[in-house]
Design a protein that fits this description.
By secondary structure, this protein is of the alpha+beta class. The protein has one domain (about 5-79): Structural Genomics Hypothetical 15.5 Kd Protein In mrcA-pckA Intergenic Region, Chain A (Roll), CATH 3.10.290.10. It has helices spanning about 5-10, 15-25; strands at about 30, 35, 45-50, 55-60, 75-79. The longest helix is centred in the first third of the chain and has 9 residues, at about 15-25. It is globular, with a radius of gyration of 11 Å.
């Protein structure tokens, strides 16, 4: 699954366009590598998203392109 879509489906970011912008501006990392919106995410990847002054780090637990609101929190685990 593309990282921009995962960020939207998991409700970490509100819209896919916002996820694209975050990736393009260098605020999304998988491991220590800065990634683009088309990066293919895998289960077990450690993702870091930088917000204004803060940072969110999580591990991908599951990939589901059609996760409902209730299922969204099961897709990742914050570390």
């Amino acid at each position: 699954m593309r990282i921009d879509k995962f960020l939207k489906v998991s409700r970490i970011l509100k819209r896919r366009g916002v996820a694209n912008s975050a990736c393009d501006s260098g605020k999304v990392f998988v491991g220590d590598k800065q990634v683009k919106p088309a990066y293919r995410l895998k289960v077990g990847d450690v993702v870091r998203v930088q917000f204004s002054g803060n940072e969110l780090r999580f591990v991908v637990k599951e990939l589901n392109e059609k996760a409902s609101k209730e299922e969204a929190s099961r897709l990742y685990e914050i570390v």
